[in-house]
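Run folding on both entries below.
>entry_1
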Amino acid sequence: MGVTSALVFANIGAAYGTAKSGVGISSMGVMNPGLVMRNIIPVVMAGVLGIYGLIVAVIIQGSIVAPQGGLSQYSLYTGFAHLAAGLCCGLSGLAAGMAIGIVGDAGVRAVGQQEKLFVGMILILIFAEALGLYGLIVALILSQNSYTCDNNN
């Protein structure tokens, strides 16, 4: 479930941020087509959130141990640590994607009318992206927590 949570929620956030920012870019491009490529930054930043989820999902998946000799080596502790890591990364990515989408939509429309707002939009986007990065960092730390079952009783 941790693998699923990390990947699905982070990608939902990335998809929402991409779609919402893309609508703003399309609308702004009608008024000022020369700024379309410059204002593609929110779409790129939203796409990075999906990569965060992929990184955590691959790390967690690599830590899952198959049963040996009919006995589980994967403890309940490790399972919950991996679930927490996946939820941490995924939900942080979802929140960051929503923030990037809303800021990207309004920001690129505003930059289309007044180019001096570009730096302010980028700063807000950086802080929104940092939310996803915080989730990635905590998830990486959580995914390192494990306990191997000792079935030699």
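>entry_2
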Amino acid sequence: MNIIEELKNIDPKTPGSWPWLIKILAFVAMFVVIVAAGAVFDWQDEWANLQSSRQEEQKLRDTFLAKKREAINLDIIKKQLIDTQQSFGALLKQLPSKSEMDALLTDINQAGLGRGLQFDLFRPGPEVATGVFTEQPITIKVTGNYDDLGKFASDISQLPRIVTLNDISVNPTSGGVLSLDATAKTYRYLDEDELAAQKRTAKAGARK
């Protein structure tokens, strides 16, 4: 008798009389059904929790990598800040103090006279405060030949203190020489007393 015939002859009401092969097959079938039901009704929540944990793990991994990149960039930024501070300190040393301004004006004047130029105008203007610095404009007008005017401009750029020539205009004169009109600008840093006075003025203006 084969398995199909045995299945046809079994009585569902008397499982105890089933052949052992049928009993084993029935047990395996019930086991599979129970496991499948457990997976659907019980393990489903655990599966959802597992997926949620995996997503959270990925978020934490991404956050870690972002923080790691920021840490690497922070070292670069710190180095750039140090380099900037050093450059700023070097530029600051090129700015005269208040007591050195008169000597600097004399240096500008001597730079022109040393090239044989004639000063028709040398008029320092009022200082203009710009943050922790002041800008000192000087209106100048000198006459001389082309080469001497060029050398004068080069000498100005090579002064130990920062001086720039702005609004330059060169025109011929009736005497066969050239006339250079320009605004020389130099800068100085404010001393502690001036900075304190500037802060007091700013506070007084804010109260109004």
